[in-house]
Amino acid sequence: MLVIIGYVLVSASVFGGFVLAGGHLAALFQPVELLMIGGAAVGAFFVGNSGKTIKATLKALPSVLKGAKYSKDNYMELMALLYELLGKIRKEGLMSIEGDVEKPEESPVFAKYPKVLADHHVVEFMTDYLRIMVSGNLNAMEIENLMDVEIETHHHEALVPAHVVAKLGDAMPAFGIVAAVMGVVHTMESVGIPPAELGILIAHALVGTFLGILLAYGFVGPLATLLEQKAEESSKMFQTVKVTLLANLNGYAPAMAVEFGRKALYSSERPGFLELEEHVKQKR
User: Residue ranges of the domains in the chain?
Assistant: First the structure.
């Protein structure tokens, strides 16, 4: 919704200001210019990216029209789940969670937390390291290094669409200039026509540069920024799991381990200490 509101504001400000200055919107309606700029951008997008990257970008684009994927409720559910699993380990031993880890979709513990269970990547990340803890073959430092590598890989993959869209936005002004140059070529070959008609052709040519810059900085560029923010946000769930499990491996009680995880959250989504404690008790 915010994306649509932003686009409306950009369009209203630019085109509205043009009209208030005495301009005529009909002069800016140049579908051929849009065809050249848009077609060149799409072609460059396919030429400059692998099939995997194209697929990831197309999959990520619809997410810009949605709100934040991870809310305060998601994080509280995650920490309540971690608290319950770590509490079970503390009372019954590591082997008590083997069934939960191997088949989380059939686990009565995971079933209490549908928002977490619906996130396949987070569940896989959590169960993989709980499985390593059950096996007992790695120490806390080794597990931390492995977690860092996996989170970095996830973060790099999540940023790919943002980088692709950013590069596409950077190219838009150049494609606008290409469209403008084509318009100038057409204008120069029309020399000899009445000055009024010649002026119209020149105006049409200049629209290409205008559209390229507007699309770059008013439409495509902001999308890249939003995609980057969403990628940053998606890594926070992994970091919370990491901090909580490492705290437990270092000997902290489940309540304190979850507190470590709480501190890893952004302040806008971080629950208060008493708020989280109450939520955890209700879920048990």
Answer: 27-284
| pTM of the predicted structure, to 2 decimals | 0.82
Give, in order, the Cα–Cα distances in Å from 269 to each of 55, 70, 246: 31, 9, 22
Contacting residues for 73 by C-beta, under 8 A, at least 6 apart: 115
Name every residue whose Cβ is closer than 8 Å to that of residue 162 and which is 6 or more positions away in sequence.
Answer: 60, 224, 225, 227, 228, 231
Phi and psi at residue 137, in whole multiples of 5°? -95, -15
Q: Tokens for 35, please give them.
A: 């065809």
Contact 224, 169 (CB under 8 A): yes
Measuring CA to CA, which residue among 57, 58, 4, 83 is closest to residue 244? 83
Q: What is the C-alpha radius of gyration for the chain, rounded to an integer number of angstroms?
A: 27
DSSP, collapsed to helix, strand or coil, labels residue 67 as coil
Give the C-alpha separation, 96 to 117, whole Å: 19
Number of Cβ within a 10 Å radius of residue 196 = 7
What are the tokens at 68?
A: 């934040």
CA distance 143 to 158: 22
Q: What confidence category does residue 1 fall into, taking pLDDT thresholds of 50, 70 and 90?
A: confident
Q: What single letter denotes the amino acid at residue 39?
A: G
Which of 216, 150, 210 lies closest to 177, judged by CA?
Answer: 210
Task: Kindly tell me the burial class for residue 10, based on how many C-beta atoms sit within 10 Å of its own C-beta (0-12, 13-18, 19 or more).
Answer: middle
pLDDT of residue 192: 67
Q: How many other CB atoms are there within 10 angstroms of residue 263's CB atom?
A: 12
Residue that the structure tokens 């430092």 belong to: 141
Burial environment of residue 26 by CB neighbours within 10 A (0 to 12, 13 to 18, 19 or more): exposed
pLDDT at 220 over 70: yes
Cβ distance 231 to 164 under 8 Å?
no
